[in-house]
Amino acid sequence: MHERSPLEEAVPKIYRAMRRADDGKPTVDATGKGLGVRGTPVNAIVDVDLDAQGNVVLNGKGMSVGPAWRELPYFLVSKRLKSKFPAARGAADLFCFTMGDGPFRDEKIAPGLALKVDSPKHGSVVPQQRVSLQQFQADLAGTRDSWIVDEV
User: Fold this and answer.
1) Among 42-46, 74-78, 120-124, where is mean pLDDT lowest?
2) CB 104 within 8 A of CB 10
3) Number of domains observed in the structure of the chain
4) DSSP secondary structure, 21-47, as one string
5) 67-71, long-range: CB within 8 Å, 24+ apart, which pairs?
6) Nearest alpha carbon to residue 17 among 62, 61, 70, 82
7) Is 131 part of a structural domain of the chain?
8) How far apart are CA 54 and CA 111, in angstroms?
């Protein structure tokens, strides 16, 4: 049995609605429906601001997450879950993924990444230091194996 280090136990439990790949893990993409951020506009929306060199500005913006799947925006929770969440209106191919098991608070969540909470129902996964958009996307993709579907 794998024993967890204190660092692993401190990782905040976060949720995000994402498309699921054939292996059951979240898709890695920058559309707002996968594991990644929109650094260039997708439907006129960006998730992070970039400086003139293409580095992510450290201003609290990043990949949106919530403390529970029922706290995610109703339009991102799959309509497959209407029996559990009547307001659900999201696409059928979205799944509620989670990672971590600690309190929803500002904390490191993975190498190079931290959770920045901006309300009791929303936070952003942000880079811990100034990095290129490409590096931030790679750091987010590096968490892929830590995510599991949780729609209970």
Assistant:
1) 42-46
2) no
3) 1
4) -TTSSBP--SSSSSSS--SS-BTTB-S
5) 67/13, 67/14, 67/15, 67/104, 67/120, 67/121, 67/123, 68/15, 69/15, 69/17, 69/96, 69/98, 69/150, 69/151, 71/15, 71/121, 71/122
6) 70
7) yes
8) 20
Q: Is residue 104 part of a domain?
A: yes
Those residues with Cβ within 8 angstroms of residue 49's Cβ, 6 or more apart along the chain or in another chain: 56, 57, 59, 61
Q: In the structure encoding, which two tokens stand for residue 50, read together?
A: 């970039």
Residue 1 belongs to a domain: no
Its domain, for residue 132, covers 6-147
Hey, what are 23's tokens?
């292996």
Tokens 């601001």 sit on residue: 49
What's the rounded Cα separation, in Å, for the pair 35 and 13? Answer: 16
Using a cut of 0.85, tell me whether the model's pTM lies above it. Answer: yes
Q: Does the pLDDT value for residue 67 go beyond 50?
A: yes
Which residues lie across from 102 on neighbouring strands? Answer: 12
- Does 109 reside within a domain? yes
